[in-house]
Amino acid sequence: MKTSKGDVVMKRLIAATAMVATGLSFSAAKADEVFVGHLMDITGATGFIGKFYADGVRDALSYINTHGGIDGTVLDSESVDYAYKVPQAIANYKKWRSRNNMVAMQGWGTGDTEALISFVAQDEVPVYSASYSGHLTDPTAKNPKTAKPAPYNFFYGASYSDACRAMVQWAAEDWKQSGGSGKPIFSHIGDNHPYPNAPKEACAEYATELGFEVTAPVVVSMKPGDFKAQCLTMKEAGTNYGYLGNLGPSVVSLVKSCDTVGATPKWLANIWAGDYETLKTIGDVENYVFPAMTSFWTDEGVPGMDLVREISKMSDSSGSEFRTHHYIRGICSAYYMKEAMEWAKANGGITGANIKAGMYARQMWVPKGLEGVCMEATWTAEDHRGINTVNIYNGSAKGGDVTVKKITTVTLPRRDDWLGY
Amino acid sequence: MAGFSMRPCGDFRTTYRQDTRIFDTTYVRNAAILGIVAVALIPFVLDGYYVNLFIQISYFAIAALGLNILVGFTGQISLGHAAFFGFGAFASAWINNMTGIPVLLSIPLAGLMTAAVGMLFGLPAARIKGLYLAIATLAAQFILEDFFARADWFTGGSYGAAANPINVFGYEILDDFSFFYVALFFLVVMYLLGTNLMRTRDGRAFVAVRDHYLSAEIMGINLTKYRLMSFAISSFYAGVGGAMYGHYLGFVSAEGFTILLSIQFLGMIIIGGLGSVKGTLMGTVFMVLLPEVMESGVSALSIFEWANSTAVTDGLAYIKEMAIGLAIILFLIFEPDGLAHRWKQIRAYWKLYPFSY
């Protein structure tokens, strides 16, 4: 009895596997088709924010496919939720590589991106991640500080370090203008994890350079909690500008805790912590400064937004759903890849190496149709800092009503000692 | 019971030596050797996806065997196994990068370093046991995780550490095809060592400590010594597994070694069978393949038109995650003794077929 039950399960498994295998062999048989894998996290540790970004990438990929593909080549893609589990990310990558002949991949966080750096470099598969760590930007290890060059890693946006530097640069101006006396005090606030830590040293160095006094970093867990103790530390240190390295619920509870104890520095949030949803959840806050790399859903008169709204209809046919700027950033990420693939097709065929070359083919470029949405970006063979311009916004909320104002645009120099760091 | 019925008629033991043979019968031994040969053919027959899954199974299985020696054989508990796994990964990369010792040597060296760290964190085991020990080892998890993020000199801090590929006599192992054989080699060696350990005086002492520590002490077994030794061996295995993981990926990041992985290791040995070397391997295979099987089930649905809308795909993603949990719970309810026990029953069934009574 028991074995026969096992038999049935086994048969089902074999049947399911066979179904997958046949499905795949069909797709491999079609002549003019390329495959792009898409790793997303919608159920895992970073699902809170991963969902918005993943929807953007996924909608963009299916929009591209239903509107002519890559100059006529069908863009086949698969979106897999890996729930932020690295082994599953690796297994999926290997599966796509060996069965679907994947030419490029849309990735997600620090975990999967860093685990795959060596594999993608070896297999020549460009990866477009949503992990903006500065150390992914030095493809040839020009800066001796770079531990591991990542020649096939790209991302759309300013690195965490550069975004933080830009905000610090703004903060230095702001301090003068608001008539502050003495040295302004800057604190890095975040969990002791690769993602919040990514800009820690880089940003603190630049802050010191600009005349800030930098306190010891304040460690705040990535999980929400009562952070009054940490807030009191900041209050005692007299922090004027606090960089928020975490995201989502953790940031919400931190800002609320600090409000309770009366520690209200100007917050400088990293890009994942700065959005409409977060501000709305905090409810009451002033001076919540954050960077953005795209226009906003509610912006009017931006030519590229028409295309964004069309793409959004891929998963929301009513067109009424509100989209965060993370969603729009996902679209940009997919579209830079698309145009690099088009360049590759015209210059020797869509292969990983040609797509990479396609990324370098133009300077200060914006994907067609997304003018005003994505910012002008330049990647070169030695510098993967696609964007060195940061738009800075000031958000505030009162009783859940959110207002976001653009305050400035900072263009950072492409300093050599900042490469990959 | 099944164990006795496995033996052919007239094959009885006359010495203790015969009683502790690794393979019960010649048939089992031949089957095991054939099994290894068959596995060695995988890269020629199956595609890169399966090869990768096998590599994942091998480094996790080595680490899980370490945990089984500690939990299943010695009756201690550890909630920090992932941290030791991570320590091994960083240690091997560090040894190789700093001293230039070849990777193949730095992997066991990293194992030894991890063993030392494991002994340090195993010290509380000399005094406390059960839930209290669980909490004490939890400290290892958090302390080491924090250490990974801070110790720039050792781990590269939040930037992570680069790990060189394995180099065998000047030939760099870069692709999965060749790494597969390195993984298979380590897997076989470490499992043979593990099986042998249980046949030694020390191995028997572990089991005695597990079964009744007071009786063991009365029999002259030094409890502190053997508990610590168990922690050391367990961490050695974790370190070797972690080092392989690091050199396979080529890059070690402080992010991957969370308590979730520790619990997954526990899941592997509980599902496979506490106190069974074979079961450890089965449990690891189960835990690595389960999400993949679920995943292929979900993608098999995509041939239907209704399953292609975003809402359904997202829904399926949640169902998949829940199904993995559900499968584990059901497994524990219906097979609390683990896969090793089930395997014995299946064998007994066929051995005695068709007259099982």
From TrEMBL, chain B:
The record's subcellular locations are: Cell membrane
Q: Provide the alphabetized UniProt keywords.
A: Cell membrane, Membrane, Transmembrane, Transmembrane helix
Membrane-spanning parts: 27-46, 52-71, 78-95, 101-123, 130-149, 177-194, 228-251, 257-277, 316-334
Keyword Transmembrane helix: yes or no? Answer: yes
Per the record, membrane topology reads: Multi-pass membrane protein
Domain of life from the UniProt record: Bacteria
An MF annotation (GO) of this entry: branched-chain amino acid transmembrane transporter activity
Q: Residues of the signal sequence?
A: none
Family matches, as InterPro entries? ABC_transp_permease (IPR001851), LivM-like (IPR043428)
Q: Which GO terms describe its cellular component?
A: plasma membrane
Q: What is this protein called?
A: ABC transporter permease
**Natural source organism:** Thalassospira profundimaris
Q: What is the lineage of its organism?
A: Bacteria, Pseudomonadati, Pseudomonadota, Alphaproteobacteria, Rhodospirillales
